[in-house]
Design a protein that fits this description.
Shape: globular
CATH topology: Glutaredoxin
Structural class: alpha/beta
Oligomer: single chain
Number of strands: 9
CATH class: Alpha Beta
Number of helices: 4
Strand content: 25-35%
CATH superfamily: Glutaredoxin
Distance between the termini: 36 Å
Order of helices and strands: EEEHEHEHEEEEH
Radius of gyration: 14 Å
CATH architecture: 3-Layer(aba) Sandwich
Helix content: 25-40%
Length: 157
């Protein structure tokens, strides 16, 4: 289990199935900027709000030349149901073995309801040309997509 990535770290490689039926790889974004956000579970209140917020702001991310990808351990079938139910526009990647979560430090010890447990740590990374440009750990959902967009837009200026 790796520590969470920091600014300047090389983005770990990934090749994951997505809700589109295609695999999505780090190499697909060579020379580009994108947001990779890790979330615990499809169809749960916080994850739903986060996915809806990124979907709502997706046109503004795209205008800034930035793609957004969501990752959880849920299956592609689960992602498709989540996407269709909420009309999500953000590609959802499936990491059932949590290998990519661990590589990015988005899985590990956390406190839930006062108990220390192992689980998905809601985390977001802004990746530019294969390196971590910004990193957010233990994310609070409300206002997060807006904060990531603000960081992207500030980088444009």
């Amino acid at each position: 289990m790796g520590k969470r990535l920091s600014v300047g770290d090389k983005a770990p490689s990934f090749d994951l199935p997505s809700d589109s039926g295609d695999n999505v790889k780090l190499g697909d974004y060579a020379g580009k900027t994108f947001v990779l956000y890790f979330y615990p579970k499809d169809n749960t209140p916080g994850c739903t709000r986060e996915a809806q917020a990124f979907t709502k702001l997706l046109p503004k991310f795209k205008k800034a030349g930035v793609d957004v990808l969501g990752v959880s351990k849920d299956s592609v079938a689960s992602h498709c149901g989540f996407r269709d139910k909420l009309k999500l526009k953000v590609p959802l990647l499936s990491d059932p073995e949590l290998e990519v979560h661990k590589a990015y430090g988005a899985y590990g010890d956390k406190v839930m309801y006062g108990k220390k447990v192992k689980g998905v740590i809601r985390s977001t990374f802004l990746i530019e040309k294969g390196k971590v440009k910004r990193a957010w750990g233990s994310v609070k959902v409300d206002g997060h997509a807006e904060a990531v967009l603000a960081a992207v837009q500030n980088d444009e200026e």
